[in-house]
Write a structure and sequence with these properties.
Length: about 190
Amino acid sequence: MLSQLIKKYKFDFGADRIGPDMPFTHWKLYFQKGMLALCKKKFKKFSNTSQFRPGAYAVGCSKIEIGNRVVVRPGCMFFGESDSLDTSIVIEDDVMMGSGIHIYIHNHKFDRTDTPLIDQGYYPDKSVILRKGCWIGANSIILPGVEIGENTVIGAGSIVTKSFPKGVVAAGNPARFIKRIHDTTL
């Protein structure tokens, strides 16, 4: 029992991930200084003004960049583990995110009917970029290769299968263009 506990302790500190299934490191997310220290150690880039809240997951942290004033809320899951990409997920400054957002950089192959899906492997990794100031609504899913433009809004619960330019609203399953955001400050 003690040897298993020691093994888990070493795994939690050495693994390229953060999440509730990592109890020896996860508790640090409840305290600002501990959260920042852990995130700066694990992520490729993590700003002093950002937060990674308890209950969120990230796999492949060393390939993920998180900019200024970003809050990663509970239930978010970032799957950024990649052997082919130097940076798999980029979340630029001032990105707003609801709870429960999932971001994926690869997907299972399903091209063959003569081979079980579990044995077909994965399609090549494609990075995901959330540009400055965009807003991703709660429980949205962002799929491989997607780029969300600056100040673009993705409606809650959307499944984003393609990229969207800056300054638009998109929503749905699959997410589609709803409208352009107009400057009302004039």
